[in-house]
Amino acid sequence: MSVKTAKIKTALILCAGLGKRLNPLTLTTPKPLLELKNVTILEKNINLIKKLGIKKIFINTFYLKEHFLNYLKIKNLEIDIHIVEDGKNILDTGGGILNMINYSNDNDFIIFNPDTVWSNDYQNEIFEMEKIYFSNKLKNIMLLVNKKLSFDDNLKGDFNLINNLVSKSGSKDFIYTGCQILNRNIFKYQKIKKFSILNLWNKLIDQNKLHGFESKKNFYHLTNLKTFNKLKDL
């Protein structure tokens, strides 16, 4: 029996953030390298990516960037990983993604925020999301979850999701999980500079072209220090 693998071959992980909401822990350790049960948040994410059959990972860095280089030297994570630095100035989510894309010849990328505690339980949902993306010839799709499934019940919904179309109207019961698939043409008119991916999402929402897929998994997110300490006790 063949093992199911993703069509997408390259994943991007956003690791350049300052992690201020988890101070003082993140004064000396970047947020993706914090540990839950002796496993870093980053490694949990990489384990899922490997489970998906993805072959290559780009990680962007800025804050405490040398920690990532040292970590990857020590750990044998058994996948092709490339570090891409934001440069002299942090590029935010949109700029960071575009900068990493420019190091690849691929057209489609799966992108993760390591603020979420990723597990292999997401594998089938991501396969289903990818299937919708390719079968409908989409340029974007994001994994959303109902706020009722959030471990941190203080998180508010930002989006509405009806028939795989994302909007900001209605009850806004959905939270972005931190996983999305994007085609490089989404950035066709963008230059590498500091900008948020929210800017692109808002433009796509205005055009009724932002797509979503609903996750049914419990959502664990490193919102702040209080939440992180609760997660350690699970």
Helix count, DSSP H or I runs of 4 or more residues: 6
What order do the helices and strands follow?
Answer: EEEHEHEHEHEEEEHEH
For the largest beta-sheet, the strand count, sense and barrel status come to: 7 strands, mixed
What is the distance, rounded to the nearest whole angstrom, between the alpha carbons of the first and last residues? 35 Å
CATH fold-type name = Spore Coat Polysaccharide Biosynthesis Protein SpsA, Chain A
Number of strands: 11
Give the mean pLDDT.
96
Query: Which regions are unreliable across 5 or more consecutive residues at pLDDT < 50?
Result: none
| SS strand fraction | 15-25%
- Describe the global form: globular
Placed side by side, the strands forming the largest sheet appear as 5-4-1-6-10-7-11
- Roughly how many Å is the radius of gyration? 17 Å
User: Can you tell me the CATH architecture?
Assistant: Alpha-Beta Complex
Corresponding CATH superfamily:
Spore Coat Polysaccharide Biosynthesis Protein SpsA, Chain A
Indicate the structural class.
alpha/beta
Helix content: 25-40%
| Count of separate structural domains | 1
At the first level of CATH, the class is: Alpha Beta
